[in-house]
Write a structure and sequence with these properties.
The complex is a heterodimer of chains A (882) and B (112).
Chain A lengths: L9 H10 L2 H18 L5 H23 L1 H20 L1 H29 L11 E8 L10 H10 L3 E15 L4 E9 L3 H4 L4 E4 L10 E5 H8 L8 E6 L2 E11 L12 E4 L3 H5 L1 H5 L9 E6 L5 H6 L1 H15 L7 E7 L19 H30 L3 H9 L4 H38 L11 H27 L3 H6 L9 H33 L9 E5 L9 H13 L5 E7 L10 E7 L2 E9 L4 H5 L3 E4 L9 H4 E5 H6 L10 H4 L1 E2 L10 E6 L14 E4 L8 E6 L5 H14 L8 E2 H8 L1 H35 L1 H9 L4 H35 L12 H26 L2 H5 L3
Parallel strand pairs in A: 3-8, 5-7, 14-19, 16-18
Antiparallel strand pairs in A: 1-9, 1-10, 2-3, 2-6, 2-9, 4-7, 5-8, 6-7, 11-20, 11-21, 12-20, 13-14, 13-17, 15-18, 16-19
Chain B lengths: L5 H13 L5 H12 L5 H13 L3 E5 L12 E5 L1 H18 L2 H12 L1
Antiparallel strand pairs in B: 1-2
Classes of the chains: A alpha+beta (882), B mainly alpha (112).
């Protein structure tokens, strides 16, 4: 016998030890040991192992059966009766099980979403000890920003800090032999990978950040620049401080997890910062702005509060002198700590991190998930209750032959457990099937896998027990306590008429109306965001990125001049202007912080060209436009927006110089105090989530043109694009020509909202579906119970409408009642939710009756279909049915 | 006295025939060889427990061998009560089977 023969599997031994006495276990396992070898002789290892397991099962089952004999018999009997009942009442069972399954599937989907939101940044092993430093100046809201000097000095000063990692995310041009592309470039200190766990695909991380000119890629950026081959050891060129530099690929990371706030395409050593900004910038203390993130790994034993309380002394020590030089109180600089894993759902601004989301959204989804599950459960309960009233005779017979109360209880519970087991199996598979579609809506990468571990499965099992227990217990208690004589006299009625069923129905409809009205309001807000006037005309506007960021060359100026010279008279092209903006062509390109009456006001710059306002159709409210007649416009003049005028409280803005009312807080060498020559209407230069800030348009060439905006005629854009391309290729043959349409980029900005409204829409459809299924089941019950009554009424001359109203009247009352309860709930919830938007739609009051009508209409439809069938039946059949 | 089932009867007879060497593995093998049907250790164990409980069978310990992972053998042997039960079963069998061949012959005849 070879040594490879596997021994008895541990699970088998454990079960046997449980089943047998200590002594017997020893002998029995000895017997098994002996013949195990026999059993698996002359087979290959895998099959041998497999056979061993099967063999053990066949051994354990008879022993188990002999121990649990009576329990097994009883449960088997209950299950048999249950399966007969399921088959007998097919429609109910299908409605019951699918209703619950759909509710459950939906619950699983939503919970997976919520779980993902809550799991952000917790996958790093050290996550409980990772903190970010935060800074706030003069009571501004704190931000996760810090100066380069902070990391070393903090670490030197405080022994409780085990590691300090500086991290900055920027966007830089990257070039391989075949591709030039702007990429998210991260700079980090060497300890980065000892704090954060990202999985490695190839290469080595040990020394990847120790020295300059090494780069770590992610799978996506690796394949973008190098195709499918392993790029480790290859060279890549990154533009830093207007100068392309070569980097050697050290390692490739797997795709960064979706639930990580740290996202980048490339990662290089933090030392390169000086090449972007210059050495003196990095070394300086107070003159250095706070801009990147600093992560601290704290000692397990030290508390962040204690550490925070020592920070004011630190600030005095390191910043005091410099602050006083500028006549600023160092106490205005507030240094703090923030737990990194709280960042995603928190309120902290972190420019180097991505994808903060509102905790409200996951709470709403969690609420909807619970509501849908509750709906499905109450549905299920209602139907089981109604259904059990059709089984009085069975129960009576059981009682007569001596079934006790506990026995009946157990039977009903087992039955509902069986049903909910079927529902869970179905629901889980439905959810597994629905995940791809769900991911499409949520923009996440979720799968059923999160369920496939012991804790989740046990929660699911608990859910099964709970659903089965709750929905089975009421009928079980009621039915098991009935009097036998009452049962056989046919005196009893359950379901449809009693208080519990009605209140469950009302509860269901309240929830449904709540969801329908709530989703209508949410959808309206999303539409509002999507259709809100951005303040400029983005239709037929094409932006050509100049890629002058690659080496700050003249290609932007060249192209702009060429476009203006050659295409000004093109019939399809109306205007050509240059502009600068981060992220999108209408964004801002620079920022100056002014001190104004003890607070700090950030004013955003946007470099524009003559004719910019006309090209994008932003109206000038006061003053004049930039003009070639005033050469000083280029250096000194700005056109500001209304918000800026309001923020600084300027009564007569035209002609005012900034120096008169606000002081640039930056170093004196770059102080900027232009003169206001005009005021424009506000336009959204951020996304619509954010309130419009103070903005000034200037012409100062702070950086080369990033975009050239071209307004074209509506209709076919092809000839204009072809002409643009031709001119572009003439002046910039080495740069790619990638025009974008502004309305596309704006649509892309709102894709989160679209996803969100998609989820909301699906959930309300599901909720309605489940509620309607419940109603359908109940109507079927009512109708079947009243067949005889309907027959008699028809014989006596009742017409179809009167029978329809007979059956549907009660449901209509219930739905109307539910409306009155649901409306105030929706109103308060919606008002609260809308407060979180800077720009919000009003709550239109027609939404409430509309939601009520939708639910009423669907409810009536369901009821009437059934009622119609009953009403159209030949009364003779109805009266003869017993 | 309760009647033996066919399976119990077989087990008792096997123990009797195996004499000093009747333990779970050998009993199982013997039964499988003679009935040409697979038998689970679990099933056999359960019926042996029943027989022990009815005092038809008693067990005694053998020595441990390396083949069995160092575990001792639990041997089974039949008791007097067991023998009586077998005797009884045999009587019943015989009285019921009595006359089988003639009658079977007859049935075959009448069909031809």
């Amino acid at each position: 016998m070879s040594k490879a023969t596997p021994s008895l599997p541990a699970w088998g031994r454990r079960i046997l030890r449980l089943l047998l006495s200590e002594e017997d276990y020893i002998f029995f396992s000895g017997d098994l040991e002996e013949s195990r070898l026999e059993e698996i002789k002359r087979r290959n290892r895998l099959i041998a192992r497999l056979r061993l397991h099967v063999w053990l099962v066949t051994i354990i089952i008879p022993i188990l059966m002999s121990k649990l004999r009576w329990v097994v018999v009883l449960i088997a009997n209950d299950l048999k009766i249950a399966s007969r009942n399921i088959r007998k009442h097919k429609i109910f069972s299908i409605i019951n099980i699918t209703g619950l399954a759909i509710g459950l599937a939906f619950f699983i989907l939503l919970i997976s979403y919520v779980r993902d939101e809550w799991s952000y940044d917790r996958f790093h092993k050290k996550s409980p000890w990772i903190y970010m430093t935060t800074v706030s100046m003069m009571n501004d809201p704190p931000g996760a920003v810090s100066a380069p000097i902070l990391a070393q000095t903090l670490q030197a000063e405080f022994p409780e800090i085990r590691n300090a990692v500086r991290y900055w995310l920027t966007s830089q041009a990257v070039r391989s032999d075949t591709v030039i592309q702007n990429q998210d470039l991260a700079l980090a200190d060497p300890a980065f990978f000892s704090l954060f766990d990202f999985s490695l695909r190839s290469g080595s991380l040990d020394q990847a950040l120790d020295a300059p000119n090494k780069v770590v890629l992610t799978v996506d950026s690796a394949s973008l620049f190098f195709g499918p081959a392993d790029p480790v050891g290859q060279l890549l060129s990154i533009n830093l401080g207007n100068q392309p530099r070569d980097f050697m690929v050290e390692a490739v990371l797997e795709k960064l997890p979706g639930n990580s706030s740290i996202q980048f395409d490339l990662l290089i050593s933090f030392e390169h910062l000086s090449q972007i900004f210059g050495q003196e910038f990095i070394g300086g203390l107070v003159d250095t702005p706070f801009f990147h993130a600093t992560f601290l790994e704290l000692n397990e034993k030290s508390s962040p509060q204690d550490l925070e309380s020592k920070f004011p002394a630190y600030v005095q020590k390191y910043y005091g002198e410099n602050f006083r030089k500028y006549e600023v109180d160092p106490a205005a600089l507030n240094l703090g700590l923030y737990q990194f894993s709280d960042f995603h759902l928190g309120s902290l601004n972190g420019p180097s991190l991505v994808g903060r989301s509102r905790p409200l959204y996951s709470w709403i989804l969690f609420g909807i998930a619970l509501v849908v599950l509750l709906l499905a459960c109450s549905n299920y309960m209602n139907l089981s209750l109604g259904l059990s009233s059709l089984r009085f005779k069975e129960i009576g017979a059981r009682k007569v032959v001596g079934a006790g109360k506990t026995h009946l209880l157990r039977q009903f519970l087992n039955e509902s457990l069986l049903l909910s087991f079927l529902a869970i199996a179905m629901g889980t598979s439905l959810a597994a099937l629905a995940f791809p579609q769900f991911n499409h809506y949520t923009g996440k990468f979720l799968s059923i896998d999160f369920l496939l571990n012991i804790p989740s499965l046990s929660i699911l099992a608990g859910l099964l027990l709970l659903t089965g227990f709750i929905s089975g217990s009421y009928p079980a208690v009621i039915l098991s306590s009935l009097k036998i004589t009452d049962i056989f006299m046919g005196k009893l009625r359950l379901g449809g008429k009693n208080v519990l069923t009605r209140s469950l129905l009302i509860f269901q409809f309240v929830l449904t109306i709540f969801l329908v009205a709530g989703s209508l309001i949410m959808l309206r807000q999303m539409d509002y965001l999507a259709s809100e006037d951005l303040g400029y005309d983005y239709q037929n506007l094409v932006a050509v990125p100049t890629y002058s960021f690659w080496n700050y060359d003249e290609s932007g100026d060249r192209a702009l001049a060429a476009f203006q010279r050659e295409l000004e008279n093109h019939p399809e092209i109306l205007a050509v202007v240059g502009t600068n903006g981060y992220g999108n062509p209408m964004g801002w390109s620079n920022r100056t912080d002014y001190k104004f009456q003890d607070s700090r006001v950030s004013v955003f710059h946007k470099r524009v060209d003559y004719g910019f306002l006309d090209a994008v159709k932003i109206p000038l409210l006061k003053g004049r436009n930039f003009s070639r007649e005033y050469p000083s416009d280029i250096e000194d003049a700005v056109i500001v927006n209304e918000t800026l005028v309001r923020r600084f409280g300027l009564e007569n803005p035209i002609g005012r110089n900034f120096a008169e009312f606000a002081k640039d807080t930056g170093p004196p060498s770059v102080e900027y105090s232009p003169t206001i020559i005009g005021v424009i209407r506000d336009f959204h230069f951020f996304s619509l989530h954010e309130e419009i800030g103070p903005l000034m348009l200037n012409m100062k060439p702070e950086s080369p043109w990033m975009y050239i905006l071209i307004r074209i005629n509506s209709g076919n854009p092809a000839p204009a694009l072809a002409a643009l391309r031709e001119t572009w290729k003439k002046v910039n043959p080495d740069k790619p020509f990638n025009p974008v349409f502004l309305d596309d980029t704006i649509k892309a900005q709102y894709h989160k909202e679209r996803n969100w409204s998609g989820i909301i829409r699906i959930s309300s459809v599901f909720a309605i579906l489940i509620a309607v299924m419940g109603l359908f089941g109940l109507t079927v019950l009512t109708v079947s119970r009243r067949t005889k009554e309907i027959g008699i009424r028809k014989v006596l001359g009742a017409d179809i409408p009167s029978i329809l109203s007979l059956i549907s009247r009660e449901f209509v009352y219930l739905i109307l009642l539910a409306n009155t309860a649901a409306w105030p709930l929706v109103y308060f919830a919606a008002a609260k939710w809308l407060q979180s938007f800077a720009y919000r739609s009003s709550i239109a009051f027609w939404i409430f009756p509309l939601a009520g009508l939708i639910v009423l209409f669907l409810g009536l439809m369901t009821v009437c279909v059934q009622a119609m069938r009953a009403a159209l039946k030949d009364p003779v059949n109805a009266l003869r049915y017993e | 006295m309760k009647l033996l089932t066919r399976h119990e009867e077989h087990v008792l007879l096997t123990i009797l025939k195996l004499e000093d060497n009747a333990y779970l593995v050998t009993i199982k093998k013997y039964l499988e060889d003679h009935t040409s049907k697979d038998l689970s250790f679990g099933t056999l164990y359960v019926s042996l427990q029943r027989l022990v409980k009815m005092r038809y069978v008693r067990h005694y310990l053998g020595e441990a061998t390396s083949k069995r992972g160092g575990k001792a053998i639990k041997y089974y042997s039949i008791t007097k009560a067991g023998l009586r039960a077998l005797e009884k079963a045999r009587q019943i069998q015989e009285s019921i089977w009595n006359g089988f061949s003639q009658l079977a012959y007859k049935v075959q005849d009448s069909h031809e």
